[in-house]
Amino acid sequence: MRRTARLLAGTALAVAATAPAHAVAATDPAAPLTAAPAGPLEIRPATVTPGGEVTASTAACGSPAAATGDAGAVGAGTFPLAPGTGEGRVTGRFRVPPSAQPGTYEIVARCAEGDRQVAGDLVVALSAAHGQVQPRGSVKTGVGGGLGPDPVQTTAGVAALAVAAAGGTWLLHRRARGDGI
User: What's the pTM value of the predicted model, to 2 decimals?
Assistant: First the structure.
């Protein structure tokens, strides 16, 4: 009984220690309502190259909806979010500076009414995930390939292997007959 109580207490402490801060704030009646985000800030595309355009949207601001976005972390400054095509949804655009360094940046939107704030992550990469270059040609391993870049070298290699195989076979045949080597 005592062991079970210790296990349950340890589990409860582990859960409490690993719970996100916004989850704890949302369940605490004394915490202000603005401590927990009302919804995510959708960033599209989620991965962009420096100089690319990004769209941010959220439905967290309610109706009538308006918000101000902050992309200062990536160096793009503030941008407006206005009502979009979806009901209660605000959308805004900004351009990632060409000088942006690769990494993950937090983009924030603050609703015009109330103190709601939502955030989303933007990944800046040197090459776009959808436009990756596929490798072409043979791998330069030093071992060669079946159809390497030089057919003369390939032919010479095959000929050397054939001579070695023939010589080995002849030596094994002589040994089997008892001629000696």
Answer: 0.50
